Amino acid sequence: MSIALSTTFDGRSAVFAGADICDEAGLVLPDNAARPAFEDDIWDFTHVVGLPTQLSPSLRRFDFTLITDSRWRLVAKELVLAMLAPRHQSVAPLPRAFRNPLHVTSCRGRLDELVRFFNWLSDRATSSLRQITTRDCEAYLAHRRYVLDEDGAVIGENSHATRRSAAQVVVDLVNYRDLFTADRVSAELRPWGGATASAVAEMPSGREENKTQPVVDEIMQPMLAAALYLISTLGPHAVGLAHRIRESDLHSARRAQGLRRVGPKNRVPVRELSEILAEYIRTCTALPMLEDHYISKRLEKGWAEDDPLLPVAMGTLARRAGLSQFCHPWLPTMRSALEDALAQVGVERPFGREADLIPAADGTASLPWTLPLSRLQAVALVGIVRTAAIITAAAISGMRASELMELRIGCRRPPEESVPGLPRYRITSKIVKGQPLGGTHDEWVVIEPVYRAIELLEQLHDAPAEGALLIGRFSFNVRFKWFKNWANSEAGRRLGLAPIPEGPINLRMLRRTLSLEMAYRPGGVLATKIHMKHIAVATTEGYADPRELHQTGEKSQVASSGRRADGLQRYYELTA
What we know:
Helix content is 45%, strand content 8%. It is mainly alpha-helical. The strands form five sheets. A three-stranded antiparallel beta sheet has the order 9-10-11. Strand 3 and strand 4 form a beta hairpin. It is globular, with a radius of gyration of 31 Å.
């Protein structure tokens, strides 16, 4: 079926005019949610039921206004909806159209590349898609293939995936040309001789080597050792610290309930402040210390560096006394009482005082589990322990990022002992990759450290309601950078942690590492296939080196054991 090309463009589609996008694509929205229409220049899929947690809100909004030419904006809308709704009566007859609906994430990627391509054409003063030639296709592929410096010199190449996206956008415009209302490529255009986008981009086949490399042992060992130490030794203390932070926020926040609102013109509340200072003196509790950046602000406002009250958090004292704030004009009246209390009990950061003793990671000593912390430092430490639990769950379970983000409060199943003394631990989540919208519920059999890491994440959750997202959307690269910097800082050295060296690491590399450790054991390929939720054994074999991986005969066992023995020993010593 071919749609006649409009000679006078009126801004309306001959195919999808007035269409309800979610209705055509089979996407479910809550009853009170706004429904995007085809004519809208922004399609908002924020509230579509079943979208993966991994998909950020910004990627759920399709913004067609980024395409400057209004005709090409309509082409982009028609192409994206055709991919979302391949069974539409005008799309199904197209001979080279996709037969299965593309995921919202994939369609967003196609739209992003369409924006780049159409605006690139506009910059080249191309007025119609009919003017595109094979030379233009080659030029755009080269434009997306190479990375240029400020002078236009080639300094590198983009990934194969980027080149495939660049080729795919041209192939899509050819395959769906008969659908477009306002403009379309020439019927004679056959870019790259009709080759697929993957072939044009020279995508690696995977027969030689998996492109995702495992994490090197020099990084894996200290990282995993630090993560396991933190969740097992610091974890229980971090849970208590998180509770104290929340309690402090309830009572010490400036807008906490029950505080009396005061201002500079109010009388000086000498009685209330004197009573709270007397309480600090009676209990021999150090006065609370300000955050460093607040001390800097005081210095900028003219406080003397040798003023003994410079680091004292007087706002915290005021709120402990039931007042909303400590007003600066009160300071001359209260200075004597404040300095007297300071001389008797001192000033210290409010969290982590009198910390319990724990064994150091290197076993050389016992020491307090933390030094006194400000609120920001306490929140950061809780975040580091939470990151340690995420690293442990990711490295030892092999779950994908999308599967980790779908974990929810209550995902731990009660341990089962089919054999006395050998408990089996299970957690539940969703498989998102390759599944219909909404994902597929499944279970993972894990070892105890993963089970305990999930338990710790539940305990550290700010609002642990049953069914709430346990981790939610997160950036592993950012979290690991914070974790590595902390482990390599004075705080990590104090606890006896080995430094984590520089080097590449991400969730895919952790998954590949675990796959190798499992696959190179007797019967490991089948076990890895089941645990990693691979559809085909061939996928699992691709995770290991196909030139060395064989599951029968002495040759395979000797080769695999010789290649991976040291790594396996260290890995399983850490996770046993």
